[in-house]
From TrEMBL:
Family: Belongs to the YciI family.
Leader sequence residues: none
The organism's place on the tree of life at top rank: Bacteria
Chain ranges of the YCII-related domain: 1-110
This protein's name: YciI family protein
SUPFAM superfamilies: Dimeric alpha+beta barrel
Pfam families reported for this sequence: YCII
UniProt source species: Mesobacterium hydrothermale
């Protein structure tokens, strides 16, 4: 079963990060990705550009509306995701607990509606 981890955090927490801080952050996530790969559960991952760069589209009554920015004003924003393939929610929770984002933000876990391999 595929599960997606949606990684939410407050982007202001990253405002003062130095290049060395970012390098350490990449190492931490690299180790997590390596652990997922070694366990054979890794499917995909990506970091997203900041929410302020988003474009939001809606179609209502046949009319397309395009807006700059995210669809909602919130403190925490979606910053990236992981997709893993594990047997059940308990296994997904165990991997989400190890996700670096859980240490400073929130990890929302959702099962895919289309199943997995």
């Amino acid at each position: 079963m595929n599960y997606t981890f949606l990684l939410y955090s407050d982007p202001t927490g990253f405002a003062d990060m130095t290049e060395d801080d970012w390098a350490r952050e990449k190492e931490v996530y690299g180790a997590y990705i390596g652990a997922l790969q070694e366990a054979g559960v890794f499917v995909s991952t990506d970091w997203l550009q900041p929410a302020m760069t988003a474009t939001t589209l809606s179609v209502q009554n046949g009319k397309t509306r395009i807006e700059n920015g995210p669809f909602a004003e919130t403190t925490e924003t979606l910053g990236g995701y992981f997709v893993i393939d594990v047997p059940d929610l308990d296994a997904a929770i165990a991997w989400a607990e190890k996700c670096p984002a859980a240490q400073y933000g929130k990890v929302e876990i959702r099962a895919t509606a289309m199943g997995g391999d």
